[in-house]
Every structure is written in C-alpha cells, then in structure tokens.
Amino acid sequence: MGERQDEVLLGKGVKRWPVERAEALLASPLPWGPPTYALGIGYVDDPKLGDQAQDFMGLAMCVDGAYNRHGNMGQAWKWANPILRQVETRTSYEGLSTQDLLDVVFLSCRGERFSDGLIRQRESLLRAIIQEVVRRICSDAPPVFIVQKSDTTENR
Questions:
Q1: Measuring CA to CA, which residue among 66, 108, 104 is closest to residue 83?
Q2: What number of other Cβ atoms are within 10 A of residue 96's Cβ?
Q3: Is 133 helix (H, G, I), strand (E, B) or coil?
Q4: Is the Cβ–Cβ distance between 119 and 53 less than 8 Å?
Q5: Among residues 108, 13, 26, which one has the least CA distance to residue 64?
Q6: Which residues contact 93 (CB under 8 A, 6 or more apart)?
Q7: C-alpha–C-alpha distance, residues 22 and 66, integer Å
Q8: What distance in Å separates the CA atoms of residue 42 and residue 84, rounded to the nearest whole number?
Q9: How confident is the model over 17-62, as pLDDT tens digits?
Q10: For a tag site, which of 8, 31, 116, 149 has the least CB within 10 Å?
Q11: 51 by DSSP, 3-state: which?
Q12: Where are the alpha helices (DSSP H) in 89-153?
C-alpha cells in the first residue's frame, strides 16, 4: 500500500489555492488581522495604519469544510488547539495534512468574528503555518488541491 496523498478541498468557486497571495502576505510586515477593538475602550490598534486583513481573510476562505470535518466552532477549536501548540513549540509538522493546517487558518479567520484581535494574537503561528503550506507546494510532492463542482447542474 502506498502513502496516502495529501489532499486539500478548496472552497466553492475557488479554482486553485493562491500561493502567490500567500507569498505576498509572508513577505510583508503589515499585520494580517484587522485593528483590534475592545468594547468600552475603543481601538487597541491604530485603525489608520495599514494591514493585510482582507488578503489574509481571502486566503483563509479558499478552503472548505472545516466545520464538516471538525464539528461546530467549540469542537473545532478542541481539535485545532493541539495543532497550534505543536506549531508554537516548533514541533515537526509530520503527521499533519495540508488540509489540517489550512483548516486551522480558516478557523482562526472565522474566530475573528467572535474574538476581536484573534488573528493578530496568533499571527506568528499563522505565518508559520502558511510558510509550511508554501514549502509543501514548492516541494517534490506537493499537495493536491481538489476543486469542488458547482452547486448548479445543467440540464441536457
């Protein structure tokens, strides 16, 4: 039996994972998350300074199915937290599929809606994950990105 292929399910309407966007995000020092706002305090970060929030969120939303694979937001974070700890301690990425890594990125992006400042708080970990994904794409055995069929079907 051969080794299982590293596959990633792309989001609906996404034809390819934008490695160029990932490389541009990694090359820029601008923050990946939007300015953090604390209720009753105001902005923690200067909202006039530039960021890459839209580009990061666009990249994160290129994958699909994290909730189907890992459950609702609470269950998904129970699944994702050990991966984040592994990234934080710079433990090997062996055993983690590219889909798993990108699911953590997706969940972090979605988590920003409920926890303002989450992306900026975890940016160093998210950068490490995206670096690993780009490294894998540029390797001799890149992951396979699966394009989903459209929800609409033609009648013939």
A1: 104
A2: 17
A3: helix
A4: yes
A5: 13
A6: 86, 87, 101, 132
A7: 19
A8: 29
A9: 999 999 999 999 999 998 887 767 777 777 778 899 999 999 999 9
A10: 149
A11: coil
A12: 98-111, 118-121, 123-137
Q: Which two tokens stand for residue 107?
A: 């969940």
Burial class (CB in 10 A: 0-12, 13-18, 19+), 151: exposed
- The label of the residue with tokens 């994702």 reads 80
pLDDT of residue 16: 93
Compute the distance between CA of residue 58 and CA of residue 66 in angstroms, rounded to an integer.
16
Are 29 and 49 in contact by the 8 Å Cβ rule? The answer is no
Sketch the domain layout of the chain as residue ranges: 7-146
Two structure tokens written together for 140 = 């001799």
Strands (E), the chain: 7-9, 37-38, 42-43, 144-146
